[in-house]
């Protein structure tokens, strides 16, 4: 009954605004491979999804008509409920402040910072990956910097296994598809002799039985030498760390507008001063139109999200808590 009332209210609003154009809904379904079989439930699912879509459509149009530094648009998330969207996140609460403080590390090499730095097109970054409807962003956030550092040292690229962490890491903060923490994932990898190659341990998007063999040398794609946090809430320290260590793991707070980002510098105030809920990787930084500083951020929702899988997030103001928990990892 509640969903029906929401649906009817949505149609009423859409009728007033003249936005209930079925052609846009049909085109959206075609582009995103959506198909709701009306014969199965008398059209209830189709009507619900359509109502959600047009609510989002109205929000997108309103946002893009305003004076904002970023734009949003439709994607595979446009007809999902809030509960359904939440499964694409996946960081648990960070370790205790005492542990965080004890591991704080500043880069050793104090060099002059370039105006921009961007590893996005580096040979050592694999194509954008997709976690699917599994809260495993923490595993992807842990693996990408390790892949990069291993590649930079060995001068050859090896794609590593997120599924190993999902299946095998049972640290107190890591729960497979129900969330985890990237730094404790690195701790786990040090105890099991490394990270498996993705070729030998491919991603499934669901938690299964652990199949990793620490004694099997052929299975190991990289090992963790050291890891630690960069000084919290210090953008300059993060820039220096990007130079020294390469891409950095971090956690952010995702709110509604983030799901629909397309271009520009993300600076939504709604994400500030809230608990973090998603792991991402910072791969660079820059300045937009000589006005606003930003981080180049790699997400785990596929190439068809955002700017081909990436988003620019405002730098220097701890936007969405992006500068609170940055961390690095070193391979060997």
Automatic annotation (TrEMBL):
PROSITE patterns: THIOL_PROTEASE_ASN, THIOL_PROTEASE_CYS, THIOL_PROTEASE_HIS. Residues 113-330 form the Peptidase C1A papain C-terminal domain. Pfam families: Inhibitor_I29, Peptidase_C1. Coiled coil: none annotated. Residues 25-85 form the Cathepsin propeptide inhibitor domain. Residues 1-18 form the signal peptide. The keyword Transmembrane helix does not apply. The keyword Signal applies. It comes from the Eukaryota. Keywords: Disulfide bond, Hydrolase, Protease, Signal, Thiol protease, Zymogen. Belongs to the peptidase C1 family. This is Uncharacterized protein. It comes from Daphnia magna.
């Amino acid at each position: 009954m509640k969903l029906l009332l929401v649906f009817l209210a949505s149609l009423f609003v859409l009728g007033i605004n003249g936005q209930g154009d079925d052609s846009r809904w049909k085109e959206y379904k075609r582009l995103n491979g959506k198909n709701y079989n009306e014969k199965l439930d008398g059209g209830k699912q189709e009507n619900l999804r359509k109502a959600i879509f047009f609510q989002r459509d109205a929000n997108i149009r309103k946002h893009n008509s305003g004076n904002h530094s970023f734009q949003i648009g439709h994607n595979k998330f446009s007809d999902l409920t809030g509960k359904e969207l939440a499964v694409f996140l996946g960081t648990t609460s960070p370790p205790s402040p005492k542990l965080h403080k004890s591991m704080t590390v500043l880069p050793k090499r104090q060099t002059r910072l370039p105006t921009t730095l961007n590893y996005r097109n580096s040979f050592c970054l694999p194509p954008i990956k997709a976690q699917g409807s599994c809260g495993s962003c923490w595993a992807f956030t842990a693996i990408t910097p390790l892949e990069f550092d291993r590649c930079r040292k060995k001068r050859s690229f090896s794609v590593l296994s997120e599924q190993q962490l999902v299946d095998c890491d049972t640290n107190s903060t890591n729960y497979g598809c129900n969330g985890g923490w990237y730094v404790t994932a690195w701790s786990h990898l040090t105890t099991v002799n490394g990270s498996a190659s993705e070729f030998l341990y491919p991603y499934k998007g669901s938690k299964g039985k652990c199949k990793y063999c620490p004694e099997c040398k052929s299975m190991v794609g990289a090992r963790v030498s050291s890891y630690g946090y960069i000084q919290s809430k210090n953008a300059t320290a993060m820039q220096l760390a990007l130079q020294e260590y390469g891409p950095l793991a971090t956690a952010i707070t995702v709110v509604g507008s983030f799901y629909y980002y397309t271009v520009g510098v993300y600076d939504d105030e709604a994400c500030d001063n809230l608990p973090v809920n998603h792991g991402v990787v910072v791969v660079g930084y820059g300045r937009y139109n000589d006005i606003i500083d930003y981080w180049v951020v790699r997400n785990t929702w596929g190439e068809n999200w955002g700017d081909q899988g990436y988003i620019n997030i405002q730098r220097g103001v701890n936007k969405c808590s992006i500068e609170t928990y940055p961390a690095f990892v070193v391979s060997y």
